[in-house]
Amino acid sequence: MHSGPQREIIGEREILRESHDPETIRYRDSEINTLTTLLSPTLGGGITETALIHGPPGSGKTCTTTAVLEEIETQHSVPTATVNCWKDHTPSRALYTIVESLVGDTAYDREQTPESVLLDAVEDAITEPTILFLDEADKLVEDDILRDLYEIDDVRLLFAANNRHQVVGDLEHRVYSRIGTAQDIEFEKYHDYQLVQILEDRMVAAKVNPEIVPDEAVEGIADAAGRDARKAIATLRNALDIVLIDDAECVTDPIIERARQKAEVDIARLRISSLTDQQTAVLKVLADIEPATSGTIYDEYERRIDDPSVSRTVRGWLSTKFPQYNLVTILEDEHPQEYELTAAAREIVE
């Protein structure tokens, strides 16, 4: 045991937050080059009109794109605005964020200002080619905003999502005809050896005592993360917290397992906090009746909600969006197919 206040485990804990942008982007050279070519005003045919970044959670889409946009803005003075559509999933909230990013403080209200007024404000703010990055674009509750933004002169749209189909697959024809042919940039899952390097970079930057996390522990964390960088970093941070709380000598396999479970709950809590009221209602229904088929879930959800989403939309959440974010498990061996909450989601919803 190592009791006493003088023990040093980590120097800068904030660097181990998943939201921290690393100084070096590892193993994404090809994606960076593609994005730079598409977004630079001096390369190729100038800034592309639309581009779609897609890949699984934790594959580096956001941090890579953010780094490229910062470079484009710095080197070429191209205005940019970023919207996190998990957080700002309604048209009004997304438009408000764009206005705020482009002009600074405004007299508008994120919740109360009419959408049409905010759209006019966005149009007034854009007087030259401007890149709008809609991260988690598939979380927008209405896709008309994509058409409205696309129709503004000088707007260049950049989307990011887990799956290309989730952004363009269900678009109305009038929207798809303009956006459905966006340039594709695909991000694949990291390999374990790549996650090891990413974790080692974070440990050095955060001034983690290397004796606390031996090489085999770093490899164990990478393996436990399922090729998801976000989960790997959260597991490392939680493992260090457990070492400190338990006054353990170093990170061990049992500590990694506890840290992995805690990381999954932390990530699930963040995801659930950003869901729409309708999506949260579906999870609460599932918590009460699981395991259940999509039909049974929808019937109960429809009974509880005054203005429910259509059955097709709810099935999409259950079969695609919720599983991708480790909120719902599909019981594929059951006929008809059934769904249940993951352990991490259940801990939060119940």
CATH class group of the largest domain: Alpha Beta
Task: Output the helix-strand order.
Answer: HEHEHHEHEHHEHHHHHEHHEEH
Strand order of the main beta sheet, please?
Answer: 2-3-4-1-5
How many strands, which pairing sense, and closed or not: the largest β-sheet?
5 strands, parallel
Full CATH superfamily name of the largest domain: P-loop containing nucleotide triphosphate hydrolases
Beta-strand content estimate: 5-15%
Q: What class, by secondary structure content?
A: alpha/beta
Span between N and C termini? Answer: 37 Å
The unreliable regions are none
What does this structure look like?
The chain is an alpha/beta fold and 350 residues long. The chain has 3 domains: 13-18 and 190-271, Helicase, Ruva Protein, domain 3, CATH 1.10.8; 29-186, P-loop containing nucleotide triphosphate hydrolases (Rossmann fold); 275-349, Arc Repressor Mutant, subunit A, CATH 1.10.10.10. It has 15 helices and 8 strands. It has helices spanning 29-39, 61-76, 91-103, 115-125, 144-150, 164-168, 173-179, 192-205, 215-224, 229-246, 253-273, 277-289, 294-304, 311-324, 343-349; strands spanning 50-54, 80-84, 130-135, 155-161, 183-186, 292-293, 328-331, 338-341. The strands form 2 sheets. It has a 5-stranded parallel sheet with strand order 2-3-4-1-5, with helices on both faces. It has a 3-stranded antiparallel sheet with strand order 6-8-7. Helix 5 links the parallel strand 3 and strand 4 (155-161). Helix 5 (144-150) packs across helix 7 and helix 9 packs across helix 11 (253-273). It is globular and about 60 Å long. The chain starts with 28 loop residues before the first helix and ends with a helix. The model has no long low-confidence stretch (mean pLDDT 91).
